[in-house]
């Protein structure tokens, strides 16, 4: 009888162990990321895990409680792979290294927009980054001003830890900026009489002027010609930037009189900073801009996105009238 009881107990233990093993070995239904801040308790962990897989969250926190797990000292982003078991997730959260967060950005106009994208990815958040970008002392330590620091934020794909601070992040971006602006590129900029920031400012205007990548070098040279001649750039996008409205389709004379350091109709030379975050390819397009004598440009009347170029103002006026007639025909104001 005693042997039967022992055998039965052993069977129960084996069955229980088997059930527990299978229960905790069930994999995550989807992949995801869990974010932990220092001081988090198991309830916080369960809530964060629950956004990935509610069933997995219950199993992991149960395991944590059974084994005396503690995550209060853990901080960072921890990736959960589809199919990863509760056991594996628990080990990763208790003692595994935090994972990097991929941050990819392009087609960004303002540092405010960039800060919003950054804040949605990292622990410190949007407002903290906005404050850092507006901090004159911090910007100066990196060799920029709050107006010019946009030149440092080169669109690309990067990876950082989730709990990186804004100051640390900007320091990393300065490192990537210095890598891009190697000796050859700095020499090419100097040959044009420009600094790297100047090149970024011109590139930002060029990108707003044309979406056609094969035309950007040509547009860049036009602005370089204007600078060399001491002419105002009279770039429409700078007025839109000054007004804070890039949706404007047709500038009026009153708009071009807007008082702003960015309005290149009223001020000669370059504005104090980029009007968008230019792509690396556009920076190179400025540095390698093909030689020509054009001083004027106007969007083509076929709305192809390309431009008509002219050496003299009279020819430019002919191009401009054709384009204005096309705008009128489409009732674009």
Question: Whole-number radius of gyration?
Answer: 29 Å
Name the structural class: mainly alpha
Low-confidence stretches: 7-22
Strand runs, count = 6
Quote the distance from N terminus to C terminus: 98 Å
**Mean pLDDT, all residues:** 90
Strand order of the largest sheet: 1-2
Overall outline = elongated
Q: What proportion strand? A: 5-15%
Total domain units: 3
**Biggest sheet character:** 2 strands, antiparallel
Approximate helicity band: 40-55%
The H/E string reads HEHHEHEHHHEHHHHHHHEEH
DSSP helix count?
Answer: 15
Describe this structure in words.
With 333 residues, the chain is mainly alpha-helical. The protein folds into 3 domains: 25-95, no CATH class; 104-180, no CATH class; 193-292, no CATH class. The chain contains 15 helices and 6 strands. The chain has a two-stranded antiparallel ribbon. It is elongated.
What topology emerges from the helices and strands here?
Layout lengths: L1 H24 L6 E5 L5 H9 L3 H14 L8 E5 L5 H10 L4 E6 L5 H9 L6 H9 L1 H6 L14 E6 L4 H15 L2 H9 L4 H14 L6 H14 L6 H8 L9 H4 L23 H8 L8 E4 L7 E4 L2 H17 L4
Antiparallel strand pairs: 1-2, 3-4, 5-6
Q: Key features?
A:
333 residues; mainly alpha; two-stranded antiparallel ribbon; 15 helices; 51% helix
Provide a compact summary of the structure.
It is built from 15 helices and 6 strands. It is mainly α.
């Amino acid at each position: 009888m005693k042997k039967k009881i022992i055998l039965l107990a052993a069977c129960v233990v084996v069955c229980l162990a088997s059930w527990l093993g299978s229960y905790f070995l069930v994999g995550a239904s989807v992949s995801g990321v869990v974010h932990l801040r220092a001081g988090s308790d198991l309830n916080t962990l369960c809530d964060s895990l629950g956004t990935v897989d509610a069933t997995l969250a219950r199993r992991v926190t149960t395991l944590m409680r059974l084994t005396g797990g503690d995550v209060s000292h853990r901080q960072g982003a921890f990736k959960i792979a589809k199919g990863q078991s509760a056991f594996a997730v628990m080990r990763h959260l208790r003692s595994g290294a935090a994972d990097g967060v991929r941050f990819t950005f392009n087609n960004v106009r303002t540092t405010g927009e960039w800060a919003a994208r950054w804040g949605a990815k990292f622990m410190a958040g949007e407002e903290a980054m906005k404050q850092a970008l507006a901090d004159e002392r911090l910007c100066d330590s990196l060799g920029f001003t709050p107006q010019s620091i946009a030149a440092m934020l080169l669109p690309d794909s990067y990876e950082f830890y989730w709990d990186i601070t804004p100051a640390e992040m900007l320091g990393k971006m300065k490192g990537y900026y210095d890598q891009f602006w190697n000796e050859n590129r700095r020499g090419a900029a100097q040959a044009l009489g420009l600094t790297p920031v100047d090149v970024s400012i011109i590139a930002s205007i060029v990108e707003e002027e044309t979406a056609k990548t094969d035309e950007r070098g040509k547009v860049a040279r036009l602005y370089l010609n204007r600078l060399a001649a001491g002419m105002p750039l009279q770039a429409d996008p700078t007025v839109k930037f000054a007004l804070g409205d890039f949706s404007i389709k047709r500038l009026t004379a009153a708009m071009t009189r807007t008082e702003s350091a960015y309005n290149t109709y009223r001020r000669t030379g370059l504005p104090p900073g980029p009007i968008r975050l230019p792509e690396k390819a556009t920076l190179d397009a400025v540095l390698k801009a093909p030689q020509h004598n054009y001083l004027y440009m106007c969007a083509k009347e076929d709305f192809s996105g390309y431009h008509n170029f002219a050496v003299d103002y009279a020819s430019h006026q002919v191009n401009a009238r054709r384009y204005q007639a096309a705008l009128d025909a489409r009732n674009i104001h």
